[in-house]
Amino acid sequence: MSEIIPHWLTKQASLSPNDTALELEDGSCLTFNDLMQKSQSFAKKLASQGVDKGTKVGLFSNNCTEMVIAIHALSYLGAVGVFFNIRLTEKELSFQIKDADVSSILAADGLANQINNMNFSLQILSFADVCKLKEVNVPLATEIALDDAFTIMYTSGTTGNPKGVVHTYGNHWWSATGSALNIGIHSNDKWLAVLPLFHIGGLSLLLKSVIYGMPIYLLEKFDEQKVHHAIMNCQVTIASVVTVMLHRLIDLLGEEDYPKSFRCMLLGGGPAPKGLLEKSKDKRVPVFQSYGMTETSSQIVTLSPKDALRKLGSAGKSLFPAQLKIIDANDEGIGEIVVKGPMVTKGYYKNKQATAKSIQEGWLSTGDLGKLDEEGFLYVVDRRKDLIISGGENIYPSEIESVLSSMVGVKEVGVTGLEDLKWGEVPIAFIVLDDASVTEVEVLQYASKNLAKYKVPKKINFEAELPRNASNKLLRNKLRELMQ
Amino acid sequence: MSEIIPHWLTKQASLSPNDTALELEDGSCLTFNDLMQKSQSFAKKLASQGVDKGTKVGLFSNNCTEMVIAIHALSYLGAVGVFFNIRLTEKELSFQIKDADVSSILAADGLANQINNMNFSLQILSFADVCKLKEVNVPLATEIALDDAFTIMYTSGTTGNPKGVVHTYGNHWWSATGSALNIGIHSNDKWLAVLPLFHIGGLSLLLKSVIYGMPIYLLEKFDEQKVHHAIMNCQVTIASVVTVMLHRLIDLLGEEDYPKSFRCMLLGGGPAPKGLLEKSKDKRVPVFQSYGMTETSSQIVTLSPKDALRKLGSAGKSLFPAQLKIIDANDEGIGEIVVKGPMVTKGYYKNKQATAKSIQEGWLSTGDLGKLDEEGFLYVVDRRKDLIISGGENIYPSEIESVLSSMVGVKEVGVTGLEDLKWGEVPIAFIVLDDASVTEVEVLQYASKNLAKYKVPKKINFEAELPRNASNKLLRNKLRELMQ
């Protein structure tokens, strides 16, 4: 039976009307009452365009206040938000619009032209357009049924077209409470949102905000100086980042003693190089590694505060309401990570086949490889699809990346496999340097000293930057294109 | 669809194996791993007696470690615990045993004789008896389906027989997380359990313990010196008490500065006299009033930390996942309190009629009267059944109790109505004195100065003690018996 709770924003506006919901870099704030008023008004305006329960509305926006308001407005109408990555090509967008039955798109004012130029045959409204509409007096949701769908986000499969991950309100609820049971809820918490809101890692923070009654410090995009400023001067207590952000931050953070109230740097977006974690430890930055994906409504495995230093390099244990297993493990104990829990999606939008393939009896096959230590802590090894098999040996790109990125002068590393007549596949590395004088020979010498011979990359490519997605995650499958 | 989570004790034992789950007054402790091991062993022994999924097992015990172990053991077997008040008469017990289809009873070692002497025709095992049994290798639950029933507790209706309130695992889960969203989760939290575990206020603490990974400091029963000691010297941060306990405590607490880490005295069990709350405020005891009942799996309305002083006397707002309304309000805004939320029972055991009468479309009629102030804070006025109607005027016993208990020399007060030919009903008061020299005339003078004439009790009865239930709640319906 679907559980019913009061509408979460209305409820928080009732409990904490004058508390800050949203804080922006210019210092301006929105209280929960402000946010409710604005979201309800936005909903009533949107209703004039026929947006209703179950309507699929596309969102094409960078991080901004209006995006936050639009998201909550959709919930007041019972509409489903389809979150587009703003870097998508016309072809990719076109597929998602059609696949998700999107009937209209809401776009950030600065991005409306970009999407209007694509000539999609559906209504596109900028946030400013919506504000000019007249409110229609429709009944707004006062309750939330946790089994109802709220958001759809597309995720690339290993093969075929992207799949629309459907998140129910319940998925988001359990994700938020599962995280709270891990890192606690403190009355002074303020979470830094620098990940894109169109990705699950960003969106999940907005929902934590209304569920916990906690302010979000919202940045339009990642900038290490701004993040540093937020932590040092704006009472941010928790920040969610991905590896490359931490990398860029770490040189700024910890040079002075940062505020004691900063208690958690939540690290997601793939395995982190051990060297980076050790550097963080030395600088006393409280990094907690986590593991999750769109299908798990953000983190589902997180290192807890008490284990953070003792289990450096581990992603931790599954959150309290979740379960985790390693299946089909090899001799080293490495196998596929499968997870289960109420924060796991019930399936892909209108794609029973993909759902049945990925989720069996509640267990989601993640496509990631990992192993558990004797105490049950998870070490994520790599994406299964990124595994390099060379002369019958398994080579995990992240291991090589981790080693090379600890070399002085090396800033970022990406490793992938290249077809090879003799070995089947061989590893090759793509490196961004801090210090332009570093040579291929030096890198190979360093690699030989720290890696078994078959793991030493057969070629080193120096690059100006590595391919990353809008969340700054490394796209290994695009590395090879750099060689063309 | 019923959500599935991992078995909560097994999960907490995996996350925090060596953290304290239970601390006793003699200083001995059980870790979560200990508690899991002992509960699983107890379950395997109990399985030898045919206890299985859905079996109703009675529990007849005071607060002790074995009771905690037995409760978790039942969950490993999927059995349902029927919690008996150990003060019940043979007749009352007999009714509950039959009504709840109880097939066997587990009794505290010190209480086994008492219940054995009652000659019920079912198996009675003391905890020591169970320990002597051989383990049977049955599969224990590894997961919990939140819609499954876990506990049954009987509650007296205004008329007719007691009704068995069924709590699902989900009811307990939502109660625990709802409370966490109100008062937060701190890593140093330790909750004092002094309420009986056979009442919902006590049991709910055990489940918070496994869900939060938080130690419980367990006392066999209330003793103000022991509670004072626990707060002053044993790092207790939160304590759940009822009014009479707070009354007895307040003179001890605050004479010295108590530890800063003590952050919440959660007060339940009926409206508190304003004088007591003010005394607590003066002594800087952080009292948060709350409101709840067996049907709501403990508190469903609680004053939040930020409003505690500003809204003295209010029970607060409904917890984040819950809703509250006042229906059929009179001119003063006083009407029946109705509540809704995932912590509210789905109904009474095998009693569709009572369920249908109490719960309509998810809304539970509480039988309590209350009103909301302009900001939506609840003030509980009284039990509807305790309302005295005198010459057409509504008189709330708790108001008179609150006034009289602020008189110097008065320790406890209970007020009820007496039939009266002229007025229909008139209020009468029962008083326990601190100072034996106080006279009826003095009390009536004090009452006349502070209450409208029709509210002044028509008779003052001095008593050695007032009738209270096992949770120390005043039993107003038994006051009249004192006059016989």
Would you kindly provide a written description of the structure presented here, covering whatever features stand out?
The structure is a homodimer of 484-residue chains. Chain A is an alpha/beta fold. Chain A folds into 3 domains: 4-145, ANL, N-terminal domain (Rossmann fold); 169-384, ANL, N-terminal domain (Rossmann fold); 387-483, GMP Synthetase, Chain A, domain 3. Chain A contains 14 helices and 28 strands. In chain A, strands 3-2-12-11-13-14-15-16-17 form a 9-stranded mixed β-sheet, sandwiched between helices. In chain A, strands 7-6-4-5-9-10-20 form a 7-stranded mixed β-sheet, with helices on both faces. In chain A, strands 18, 19, 21, 22 and 23 form a 5-stranded antiparallel β-sheet that branches. In chain A, helix 3 (65-77) links the parallel strand 4 and strand 5. In chain A, helix 2 crosses helix 3 (65-77). Chain A starts with a strand and ends in a 22-residue tail after the last strand. In chain A, 52% of the residues are buried. The mean pLDDT of chain A is 93. Chain A binds chain B through residues 1-6, 8, 11-12, 14-16, 143, 147, 170, 174, 177, 180-181, 184-187, 211-213, 304-306, 317-318, 320-323, 340-342, 362, 376, and chain B through 1-6, 8, 11-12, 14-16, 143, 147, 170, 174, 177, 180-181, 184-187, 211-213, 304-306, 317-318, 320-323, 340-342, 362, 376.
